[in-house]
Structures are given as C-alpha cells and as structure tokens.
Amino acid sequence: MRMKTYAADTMEEALGLIKREMGPEAVILNARHLEEPGPLGMYTRKRVEVTAAIDRGETARTVAPSALDEAVRGAIGTYASTGRPSGREVARDRSIKINGAGETVSGPSRVSIANDDVAREIKAIRAGMEELKKSLSNEGGAGRNGGLLDFLTGSGVSGELASRVCGFLEGESAKIGDPTIDPARLKNKMARIIKTAGPIAPGAGETRWIALVGPTGVGKTTTAAKLAAGLALAEGARVALATTDTYRIGAVDQLQIFADIMDVPLHVLRGPEDVMRTRRELAEYKFVLVDTSGRSPLDVNATSEIKWLRHANPAAEAHLVLSAASSREAQNAAIDAFKAAGAAKLIFTKLDETTKRGGILDAYWRAKRPISYVCHGQRVPDDLTAATSALVLDWIFPAKNKITLAANAI
Predict the structure, then answer these.
(1) Could you tell me the maximum CA-CA distance found in the chain, to the nearest angstrom?
(2) How is residue 242 annotated by DSSP?
C-alpha cells in the first residue's frame, strides 16, 4: 500500500490533491487541523492535513476533473443533507470515464459492508466529510466564536480579519468560562497583535525630518502642527515646519498661522534644491515636520513629492496618515497607492469622528507598519497621542460595550 500525507488550506483542496494524484480508489486514513504562524507572526493560519493510501496494485491515473468532481460533489451533497453517505452511492459500481474516451478505472463492482477494509474506508470518508462540514460551518461564522465574531464586525472589523482574530484567540478558550467577556479581557489578549512605534525621539546629533504623506482630507496639516507643538513642549527642542503643498489654495497660509502661534520657522519646499538649502539652514534644529500635499490614490504622481524630498534628504522618514472615519475601500486604496512612499509608520486621525473604528485593525494589517500616533480632535497639541497597543484597542473597543458570548467563546 502506498501512503502519502497532503496539507492544504481547506478539506476540499486536500481531497482534490488526493484525487488528482492517487485517483478515485484512494482511501482517507486520517484528517486533522493544523495551526501555522501567520504573516508577521500575528495570527495563526488554519490548515488541514489528510493522509491517504492506495493499494500498490492500483495504478495512479489522471482522471478527468469534470467527471470526478461531479461524483465528489454528489457525495458531499448527500452527506451534508443526511449526515451519512448514500447506500446507493456506496454500493454502486465505481467506474469513472477518463477524458470521455470510454476508458475506465474500475473498482469492486459491489461493496460489502462486512468487508473490514471497506468498512474502514467508509468510516474514514465519514470523518473527512465531518471535518469538511465543520470547516464550512466555521468559515460561515457559525462556530463557537460566533458571538465574538459579531462583536468584532459590529465594531467595524472586516469579516475576514475578524475570523483571523477569532482563530488567534481560540487557543485561550480553556482559560475562560464566563459567558460575558469584558472588553478589557479581550484587549489584554489582543494587545500582542498591535505593534506601535512610540513617540518620535531626537536623532543622534542630526536634524530629524518627519514627512507626513497621505490622501486629501485626512488632516495632515493639523497633524504636522500638533507634532511640532508636542515635540517642542515634550522635548524642549527647536522645531521647524516645512511644506511641499503649493497646490492647495491657502495651504501655506494655514500652516503659517500655526508657525506664527508656535513661533517656529516655516519653509516652503518646491523641489530638491529647496530641501538642500533648508537642510543647511536648519542644521541646528532637532526636528523638521514636513506637510506634503494631499493626493488622490488614483493620481499616478501621488508620491512624487516624497520621492524628490527623500532624494535630497535620504534620512527623511515618512509617516502615512489615514483617517479612521474613511471607508475600508478608501483606506485600502491609500495604503496601496502610497506604498512607493516607503512610509515606515502609520498615523490615524479623526478617531473622534466615527463610532466604528475597527477599520484601524484592517488598515494596520494591510499596511504591516507600526502605529506611531492617533489624533482624536482639533486641539493643538492636546488631541495627539503617541500610540500604544492598549490605547489603540481602547479606541476600537470602548469599555462601555460588552461582548455576550457562548461559554468558552474565546
């Protein structure tokens, strides 16, 4: 007997591999779930492992997918509706045409339940079908984490990411017996998922340039002013403002008002030459906060400014600014469009303008960059806070909410 173990993302995929390599006479010996570390090590990835075998006398054949898939779909449909294989399907002649040419792969013409080998085969098939049934049920959100799944999606987290989070937390199920889970307990377990960058610190003996990039309307100008004021107060350091936004009417004037109030210089950068000159003039400063023009994610030149800025100053660090009030589609488009900007960190603004902030988790997962700051109001610099995992989760899951789950749901 020839045996082989197959690993796949779903039971259906594993069965498909077995059928293609071993043919319809293969017997399922064992099936089990696996958990592998996901991207960045943040979530576990669920897979299935199926062990199948075929008698050495059988020849592995390549069977026409259409004919075999039709037979398998019929068997799955019968099992899903009745909970057991159809007696007619078990007993009938197991001959399948190959490529429509009339050639067949023939098994026993009749199956005797008294035959031990066949009885074991039927038992293994039932186990495989049960695994498939459970897998489909979990993917549909009907698993034991259904309450948590509803809570996450109700907070604005996408269904796909909510399922990943449930999988990540499932390993803690044995430790919780209370059917009402306080968000504080949930946040303690999720804290390890969120990576944050902490506040901006002075560079080692040189001016640190921080450029804010992102789409229009996310609050980059106000955020630059908040950062400048906050760093001046917290670090007692000399801070300057700069802008590349010469497109929007009133953009320079708006930032100039902030600069006058804080009594800091403002430099307008129109190209690499201005960057080189400003670097020399501000060599004694600790921080330069650069406000770039907002661009549509559909604009092919969306990252042109940060490119020439970093060409003239390779040490400039880009932070991608995203609005927590934006739709998931808008956030995804911005993340994809500004990848070329090489943003090292994320800043989320307008947390005070939405009650569903779960999209922050989705954006963080998609961008795979740590979060440096969150903005939650218009006050300068009061409504800017250095991000921590606990703070981000406090905003996403307010403590006033409760999660009602089945026992051991997490």
Answers:
(1) 92
(2) E
pLDDT tens per residue across span 289-334: 999 988 888 887 788 888 899 889 998 999 999 999 999 999 999 9
CB burial readout 247-282, b (16+ within 10 A) else e:
eeeebbebbeebbeebebbbbebeeeebbeebbeeb
Q: How far apart are CA 3 and CA 347, in angstroms?
A: 53
CA dihedral 347, 353, 356, 362 (to 10 degrees): -20
Euclidean distance between the first and the last CA atom of the chain, given in angstroms as a whole number: 42
Rounded CA-CA distance 253/260 in Å is 10
Q: Which of 383, 349, 379, 385 is nearest to 261 (CA)?
A: 379
pLDDT tens, 36-54? Answer: 665 445 556 678 888 888 8
- Token pair belonging to 163: 């399922």
Tell me the chain's radius of gyration from C-alpha atoms. Answer: 29
Map tokens 């004919």 to a residue: 67
The DSSP H or E segment spanning 281 is helix 272-281
Instruction: Burial-class residue 134 by CB neighbours within 10 Å (0-12, 13-18, 19+).
Output: middle
> pLDDT tens for residues 346-402?
999 999 998 889 899 999 999 999 999 999 988 888 889 999 998 998 888 876 544
Under a CB-based contact definition with an 8 Å cutoff, are residues 162 and 410 in contact? no
Distance from C-alpha of 283 to C-alpha of 293, rounded to nearest angstrom = 24
Alpha helices for 339-409 (secondary structure H): 359-367, 389-396
Which of 104, 338, 318 lies closest to 200 in space, CA to CA?
Answer: 318
How remote is the C-alpha of 263 from its chain's centroid?
A: 42
**Residues forming a β-bridge with 51:** 5, 30
Q: Model-level pTM?
A: 0.61
Q: How many residues does the chain have?
A: 410
CA dist 66 and 20 (Å) reads 12
Distance CA 400, CA 384 (A): 23
* Phi, psi of 320, deg, nearest 5: -85, 125
Q: What is the mean pLDDT of residues 137-150?
A: 54
